[in-house]
Design goal:
Elements: E1 4-8, H1 13-24, E2 28-33, H2 41-44, E3 50-54, H3 60-73, E4 79-82, H4 97-125, E5 128-133, H5 148-166, E6 171-178, H6 185-188, H7 205-218, E7 222-225, H8 228-237, H9 242-253
Helix pairs in contact: 1-7, 3-4, 4-5
Bound molecules: NADP nicotinamide-adenine-dinucleotide phosphate.
NADP nicotinamide-adenine-dinucleotide phosphate (NAP) is lined by residues 9-15, 32-35, 37-38, 56-58, 83-86, 106, 133, 135, 152, 178, 180-181, 183-185, 188.
Length: 257
């Protein structure tokens, strides 16, 4: 029987490309998204067995729906990709706190709730691999996306701690830190009027996904997703002050009108 992977945010962007790469490696896919388009995943990946789950991961009920699907299949879960996430652009003075609460629910709370179920199942199996999509935003202050970056820093740190805990249980945890990637992500965040608004200069989501899946399979602790320039920027982040990184980030994230 084929191996089974759970991928959240599988209907678009990086999660769709990760699903494609896992399907190419022979995995069946439980793919999660909150809109109807998740139902098209089976047509996109015709050679894989696909189980689409439409669930809103900003709610605990959505997480339960996803986990019920995993449980009902009654199969080993070989891979879990905690990837669904969004951002919110604009100055913290102006953004709506309700939007921020939704983002925190999706980017943090749902990931922790799902991870709780995933690690229990994988520990029981004494096998499994987890990929957590964080971001290069975990390595810098992110003014004008001021809550998004900390949600990714949380996931990066969470993945590193969990990795240490789970190594005696036969489970590996890998964090993927993509640089800016050409998906709908920044449009959804309302950042069309910033440097991030254009996809022309960004990383190819297929490349980012390949780097993530290769690191997952190799059991690496983390990987930067993107081209050589992106990886160099990640290296430079280690040596620059937060003040300097915040100034640089704001030049790209500040709305122009
Ligand atoms: N693109 C970048 O520049 C970039 C850089 C670094 C890190 N990342 C991280 O990469 C991950 C994926 O981003 P992306 O660029 O692929 O974004 P994307 O193209 O906007 O895709 C987001 C995915 O998440 C799903 N999703 C959104 N809200 C959801 C909800 N409430 N419940 C369930 N699923 C939901 C979307 O499906 P529906 O729309 O159908 O719900 C879609 O499948 C995120 O965690 C993000 O933080 C992205």
């Amino acid at each position: 029987m084929a191996q089974l992977a759970l991928v959240t945010g599988a209907s678009a962007g990086i999660g769709l490309e990760i699903s494609r790469q896992l399907a190419d490696r022979g995995y069946d896919i439980i793919g999660v998204g909150s809109s109807e388009r998740i139902r098209e995943l089976g047509e996109t990946l015709p050679h894989a067995e696909v189980y689409p789950v439409r669930a809103d991961l900003t709610t605990e009920a959505g997480v339960t729906e996803v986990w019920n699907e995993v449980a009902e299949l009654g199969r080993e879960l070989d891979v879990a990709v905690l990837n669904a996430g969004r951002s919110l652009g604009g100055g913290f003075l102006d953004t709506d706190i309700e939007d921020e609460k939704q983002m925190i629910a999706l980017n943090l709370t749902s990931q922790v709730l799902l991870a709780k179920q995933v690690v229990k199942k994988m520990a029981e199996q004494h096998a499994g691999r987890i990929l957590v999509t964080a971001s290069m935003s975990a390595l810098t202050p992110t003014p004008f996306e001021s809550i998004y970056g900390p949600t990714r820093a949380f996931m990066f740190s969470f993945a590193a701690g969990l990795r240490e805990e789970m190594k005696d249980h036969g489970v590996s945890v890998t964090a993927l830190l993509p640089g800016a990637t050409a998906t709908n992500f920044h449009q959804t965040a309302g950042m069309g009027n910033t440097v991030f608004g254009s996809n022309d200069w960004k990383n190819d989501p297929a490349q980012v996904a390949r780097q993530g899946v290769e690191a997952l399979i190799a059991g690496k602790d983390h990987v930067i997703g993107g081209d050589r320039k992106t990886r160099l920027t990640a290296l430079m982040h280690k040596f620059r002050s937060n003040r300097s990184k915040a100034g640089k980030f704001a030049r790209d994230s500040r709305p122009t009108k």
